[in-house]
Amino acid sequence: MSAHEVDLVVIGTGPGGEALANAAASAGLDVVVVEKHLVGGECPYYGCIPTKMMVRGSDAVAEVRRVPQVAGEATITPAWSVVARRISEEATAGWDDTIGVERLEKVGATVHHGVGRLAGTGRVVVETPAGETLELTARRGVLVNPGTRPAVPPVEGLADTPYWTNRDAVRLTELPGSVAIVGGGPIGCELAQVFARFGVRVTVIQHGSRLLAADEPEASALVEKVFAEEGIRVLTDVELVRAAYADGAFVLTLDTGEQLTADKVMVAAGRVPNLDDLGLETVGLDPAARTLEVDEWLRAGEKLWAIGDVTGHGAFTHVAMYQQAIALRDILGQGGAPAQYHAVPHATFTDPEVGGVGMTEQAARDAGLRVRTGSTDLAASSRGFTYGPGGHGLIKVVEDADRGVLVGATAVGPAGGEILGFLAVAVHAEVPVPTLRSMIYAYPTFHRAIEAALADLS
Ligand SMILES: Cc1cc2nc3c(=O)[nH]c(=O)nc-3n(C[C@H](O)[C@H](O)[C@H](O)COP(=O)(O)OP(=O)(O)OC[C@H]3O[C@@H](n4cnc5c(N)ncnc54)[C@H](O)[C@@H]3O)c2cc1C
């Protein structure tokens, strides 16, 4: 075992950990990075980036299919090979993190591919794939950014089948004839529509009463309607109770008694935090916890910072990136504004896109606020009307009536995630509703529907 003293150890490099390590090393700290798989984490290799390349492909397919209704003759023969090549060559470099490693090394950081575990305050033990052990003592401290892995529900027989997770889905070079997706959250919904538009027969098995359960019910209803129109079978309020695989086919038994067959099964049923093998017990923290509690400076303990999905403030790349900037300032002793989470935005890249920021109506009511809501149908706006097929969606705003500010908003529609930008500013900066109502909204944009939603506040 070799032992070293450094300034900062970063265990796990999601996008935030990588950025922080880069910035800390650039600022002159002696930084060691420990990553057990790929520097950059889930987002560039198995999450946001490859799935958004899939979405780009499936949106193009859908758009060509709408052309006859708005512009003339057009046909498309979808080819998954184009998407697969883009993901492999342009997004992930064949799932190779050399560029990320070199970027870190260029600014003076040391990168170890291996498993990092805490071994007391400011101490880390690294286990390399070759079986070597390295002991690190961090003068400033340790930042953990270990991320999550797919949750696999404890369904009888499932563990013995060759089910897919997002990690398999992004590496596909060919699509199956049919797929059953277990889970109707953002990942399940995005991939369901992608696969269906490329000709796969898709069934979504959702144990809750609606898709995209963290969003407004109106958003779920529209996505479910669109899925039905596109031939995606959505089963809600059902439990998968048994899974079996034989001769290249899955047989799934639901609690309703129905049996489904599918060529493939993809599990998208939530995520499990990678906290169980991080040595948290050596610093008095619970390795079985669902989240790692952090303060507004992302401090999780003495000489310990945590960022990313495991902090429970939103499992999104933009949250991890926001947090890393704050943790970095704290590590460097620079102060500045601490973290606030009242305006966390998110976008699900179905078509229509579902963007949300802050609280849903129900969350605001549960928080005890006096709530007023306003909403409008995008299809009824001038832009939605002229757009024609695909021009549907909605805007919903949630106001804290006592303070006269929006505490949440939803934008569903073509570019719903972009319309969301406006609403995110309103929630973040707590812009008074009368000020929002006094603005001029360009005609005929989709975002102009926000004015109608604000007028509907009641
Ligand atoms: C299919 C899919 C689509 C997504 N799409 C979006 C999207 O469109 N927009 C969005 O904002 N977010 C999206 N996300 C979420 C996004 O990927 C994560 O929020 C983002 O990657 C940040 O995660 P993180 O910082 O917690 O760490 P991660 O990105 O999960 O990285 C953690 C890293 O830590 C490493 N690690 C773990 N434990 C150890 C250890 N003990 N020692 C060494 N290394 C360790 C892991 O190997 C991993 O590389 C998506 C996720 C998935 C799965």
- The CATH architecture name of the largest domain reads 3-Layer(bba) Sandwich
Q: Please report the number of helical segments.
A: 14
Q: What's the CATH topology name of the largest domain?
A: FAD/NAD(P)-binding domain
> How much beta, percentage-wise?
25-35%
Mean residue pLDDT: 97
Helix % is 25-40%
CATH class of the largest domain: Alpha Beta
The general outline is globular
Rg (CA only)? 23 Å
**Structural class, from secondary structure content?**
alpha/beta
Characterization of this structure:
The protein is of the alpha/beta class. It folds into 3 domains: 2-40 and 97-149 and 272-331, FAD/NAD(P)-binding domain; 158-269, FAD/NAD(P)-binding domain; 345-455, Enolase-like, domain 1 (2-Layer Sandwich), CATH 3.30.390. The chain has 14 helices and 22 strands. It has helices spanning 15-26, 42-46, 48-70, 80-91, 98-106, 166-169, 186-197, 217-229, 317-331, 361-366, 382-387, 416-428, 433-437, 449-455; strands spanning 2-11, 31-35, 110-113, 115-118, 123-127, 133-144, 148-150, 178-182, 201-205, 233-235, 240-246, 249-254, 259-262, 264-267, 271-273, 299-301, 304-306, 345-348, 353-358, 371-377, 394-400, 405-413. Strands 1, 2, 3, 4, 5, 6, 16 and 17 form an 8-stranded mixed sheet that branches. The chain is globular. The protein binds flavin-adenine dinucleotide.
